[in-house]
Amino acid sequence: MDWTLICATNDEQILRSCLLSSPDLPAARDVLLQRGFDGAAAAYNAAMDKARSDLLVFVHQDVYLPAGWLARVENAVGMISEKDPDWGVLGVWGVQTSGERAGLVYDGGWGRILGGQFDGGLEVESLDEMVLILRKSAGLNFDPRIAGFHMYGTDICLEAKRRGKKCYAIAALSIHNTNQYWMLPWQFWKGYWAMRKKWRAQLPVKTTCTDITRWCWPMIRWNVVRGVNLLTRRDSAPLKRVADPRHLYQELIASGKVAPIIA
Q1: 164-182 exposure pattern, b = at least 16 Cβ within 10 A, e = fewer
Q2: Which residue, among 60, 57, 130, has the nearest Cα to 92 in the 3D structure?
Q3: pTM of the model
C-alpha cells in the first residue's frame, strides 16, 4: 500500500515514544512531521500539498500503531473501496447516526479498550481526530476556520458528506496514549462554537465526545456534571499516559484484553 503518514507535532518526547515507535512506519513512502503550526488545518493542508502518495494517514503524536496495523488498514480500505470506491474519510473511532460508537482503540484517558473487531468499515457520521485516512484524489481539505486542534475530524466528515461521500470507522487497533482530562480545554469548546456556526443548518451533529446542537444543552450538561464531580471529589486521580506504549500493548495481549493483530 502506497501511503504517507502526516503528524502535526509540538512535543518531541511524546512523538518519539508513541507515534515514531510504531513498527509499521518504515513502510510509509514519506513521514511528514508538521512543526510550528498553531492549528491542524494549516499543518495538514500544507502536508497534503507535499505528499507524493494518494493515501494520506493523519495521526496524533500520542498514538501508537501496533505491528500489523497497516495490514488491517489495507484490508479495510480494500473492502470499503470494493463497495464504495468514492469513500470520503476513514478513521479508527467514530459515531454512527444512531449514536453508537464504532472502531477499535485503547484509550489512555479511560484506561480501557473501546469498540470491537469487525471487517471492512461501519458508516459513521463523524470521526475522532486521533487517526484520519483520506485520499488526496478525493479533493477534501481541512477548513482553517476550525482553528486549533479540535473538531476538524467532524468538520471534514461533514464536508465529505456534503460532496456525497461516505465516511467509515475501521477496526485497526490504535493505542491512544493520552492523559485523562476531567475538563475539556477551552480550545475544544472554541472548536465546538465554530462548528455550531458553520453547520447551523445541519444541526444536531454527533461527535465522539458530545453532540453539537442549536441550544448547546449537551455541552452545558457535560460541563455541569464534570464540575460537580470535581467539586464533590467523586473522581479519582486522573490517569496518565504511560512511558512506553509498546509495553502497554504487550500487557494488553498478555491479559487477554486484545489479541495480536491479524490481517
Answers
A1: ebbbbbbbbbbbbbbebee
A2: 130
A3: 0.93
Whether 150 and 188 have beta carbons less than 8 Å apart is answered as: yes
Where does the pLDDT of residue 224 fall: very low under 50, low under 70, confident under 90, or very high at 90 and above? Answer: low
Residue 203 vs residues 38, 96, 101, 227: alpha-carbon distances, Å: 27, 15, 19, 26
Residues ≥6 apart with Cβ < 8 Å to 66:
22, 23, 173, 174, 175, 249, 261
> According to the 3-state scheme, what is the secondary structure of 80-148?
HHHHCCCCCEEECEEECCCCCEEEEEEECCCCEEEECCCCCEEEECEECCCEEEEEHHHCCCCCCCCCC
Please name the amino acid found at residue 54. D
99, burial (CB in 10 Å: exposed 0-12, middle 13-18, buried 19+): exposed
Cell numbers 468514492 correspond to what residue?
86
Contact call for residues 102 and 122 (beta carbons, < 8 A): yes
pLDDT digits (tens, 9 = 90+) for 126-158: 999 999 999 999 999 999 999 999 999 999 999
Beta bridge partners of 7: 33
Query: How is residue 26 written as a grid cell?
Result: 518504515
- Rounded average pLDDT over 22-38: 97
Predicted confidence (pLDDT) per residue in 81-129, tens digit? 999 999 999 999 999 999 999 999 999 988 999 999 999 999 999 999 9
